[in-house]
Amino acid sequence: MKISKERLLELYETMMKIRKFEERVSGLFAGGHIPGFLHLYVGQEAVAAGVCANLHRDDYITSTHRGHGHCIAKGADVKRMMAELFGKRTGYCKGKGGSMHVVDVNLGILGANGIVGAGMPIAVGAAFSAKAKGTGQVAVAFFGEGATGTGYFHESLNLAAVLKLPAIFVCESNQYAEFTPREKHLPVKTVAERSKAYGIEGYDLNGNNVVEIFEALSAIAAKVREGGGPVIVECFTHRWSGHYEGDPQKYRPAGEAEEWRKKDPILHAEQVLREQYDADITELAGIKDRVEREIDEAERFSMESPLPEGEETLQDVYAS
């Protein structure tokens, strides 16, 4: 489906919201306001935006330890997200989950996940339920190329293929599995080619081109939704930061990050909007200003929100 100017502006705003959210929480983490760990999504914004724009509200996603972008693209409230990172009672998990465990079942967000690859079997379960009930929903599992060496990956692909489930396995190849470059742990050139082992289709996409991702996923998601079975979609991109905030990144070759920054997915979208859709600077600046105000409000909300009380420790641990 050829993308419209209105849709591309929406994708641009989603990417900008992810970028500004991540940049803000990075600074707040450095200032001591956020406990625990952060794994930032900066540089990969086009993948989450382009994929999730083709999903319905009740479609499912499972995420990773680097999951803020997926949740924002699926429609999560940045105030509640940031409050969760702060460990505040107003967060999505009432301050008990933190960065790696954002969940909103009402939006189909079945959780970010601190265990590498563990979101894939959850997505398979969601896809199984959708097929069994005939709801027409799809389930998307986001993961990095490092997760493809786990049993989760192979078992999930095999079961989804055997049962022909409505599942889309989106591999964000950001060039590193924690600290290990992909050429050191992947015996194949691409993750997408592993689709052949399961008799399903695999696609390679430019993970920094939101237009390519959106248009490709429009067709892919429609086919999967109509009973075409699972697919693997590999998006080649790059994480601009280290594995975690504070990572010294001694494993990264000199100049590598700078070269990838030249392929900034947000700047690419701006270029397309201006050259092909006649968007002007004022229009784009208005989106940036609106996003900045939203992130400012999320920070204020998080700062002012209360911490959980001690007696809340065991609440929500067991089903009632």
UniProtKB/TrEMBL annotation:
Cofactor(s) listed: thiamine diphosphate
SUPFAM superfamilies in UniProt: Thiamin diphosphate-binding fold (THDP-binding)
Any single biological process term in GO: pyruvate decarboxylation to acetyl-CoA
Entry keywords, A to Z: Oxidoreductase, Pyruvate, Thiamine pyrophosphate
Oxidoreductase keyword on record: yes
GO molecular function: pyruvate dehydrogenase (acetyl-transferring) activity
Domain Dehydrogenase E1 component: 14-308
Any matching Pfam family: E1_dh
PANTHER family xref list: PYRUVATE DEHYDROGENASE E1 COMPONENT SUBUNIT ALPHA (PTHR11516:SF60), PYRUVATE DEHYDROGENASE E1 COMPONENT, ALPHA SUBUNIT BACTERIAL AND ORGANELLAR (PTHR11516)
Name this protein carries in UniProt: Pyruvate dehydrogenase
Organism: Paenibacillus naphthalenovorans
